[in-house]
Design brief:
37% helix, 9 helices, eight-stranded parallel β-sheet, binds zinc ion, 12% strand, single chain, TIM Barrel, alpha/beta
């Protein structure tokens, strides 16, 4: 598989991120489409998913921003939307209706932990019904939150088991390996054939003390997850850019002590299949 077919499933490029300057992995980062594509090119990544943040004002804003990123990047940044179930049943129904008219939608991202809801909240049933029917992956923020006022009780991978069982046709992605609950994530991926995980956002800024040890620990935990599951078919490469350098995130996977075929699957093949990227239509 060529490097251009590699996919970063976890990128954030949005005007709605309020505290970005204090959180990017490098203060002088070029936070534009050009800057992002430059980093992807430097690391041999062909395309990626542009994921909105929970600060996005509404579903319409995520679609509008995602469409313009897709166009400006020549189709290399795929469209992802999000919804807060706290907006109420009518709002969720309207979101689903809009998504139904958006053929280029590649995934939905939900933010339990940042927002106060459990993944098995019944208010999300219309989202899951729609996504299961369309085989559209739903990605869940899981584990540690960047913001101090996040609520970790809503972000534990174990609570996704209920969703995975109730919606067997729903493709589910547990982001960040559910860090620090990586063993819970491994069990969910092992038990449920409709659960994937991405290894984004496991590393802090490279300037922190112990960064190298942190990198090695993250790689070892990722390796343990693959060994626990027994294969690498539902593990996805992602960086969480701009929180993490794309080159470092690639290195985490590229230096895993597993066969090269499996590393390439994680770096792109698994994502292309899960997100139907080879079937993408023309850019509009
Ligand atoms: Zn993220």
């Amino acid at each position: 598989m060529g490097r251009g077919t590699r996919v970063d499933v976890h990128l954030h490029l949005t005007r709605y991120w309020r505290d970005l300057p204090g959180t990017a992995y490098r203060p002088d980062l070029d936070y534009t489409v050009r800057g992002l594509l430059g980093e992807l090119d430097g690391a041999g990544i062909g395309s990626g998913l542009a994921i909105p943040v929970h600060h996005a004002p509404d579903v319409g804003a995520t679609l509008e921003e995602g469409r313009s990123l897709r166009t400006e990047s020549g189709g290399r940044l795929h469209l992802v939307s999000t919804v807060d179930p706290g907006i109420g049943d009518e709002g969720v129904a309207a979101a689903v209706e809009r998504w139904g008219r958006t053929p280029e939608l590649t995934a939905i991202k939900l933010f339990p932990g940042y927002l106060p809801f459990f993944p098995h909240d019944r208010r999300l049933d219309p989202v899951y019904e729609f996504a299961a029917h369309r085989k559209l992956p739903v990605m869940f923020h899981q584990g540690d939150t960047l913001e101090r006022n996040g609520r970790l009780k809503f972000a534990r991978p174990i609570d996704l088991d209920e969703v995975a069982v109730r919606w067997p046709d729903l493709p589910i992605v547990i982001c960040h390996l559910g860090n620090p609950w990586v063993e819970e994530t491994a069990e969910l991926v092992y038990k449920n054939s409709n659960v994937w995980t991405d290894c984004s956002g496991l590393l802090a800024r490279p300037t922190v003390p112990y960064f190298r040890e942190m990198f090695e620990r993250a790689r070892s935990r990722l390796h343990q997850l693959i060994v626990t599951v027994g294969d690498a078919d539902r593990v996805l490469y992602g960086s969480d850019w701009p929180l993490e350098s794309i080159a470092t995130a690639v290195e985490l996977v590229a230096t895993l002590p597993i066969p090269e075929d499996d590393r390439e699957r994680i770096l792109g093949g698994n994502a292309r299949r899960l997100f139907h990227l080879d079937a993408s239509g023309p850019i509009s």
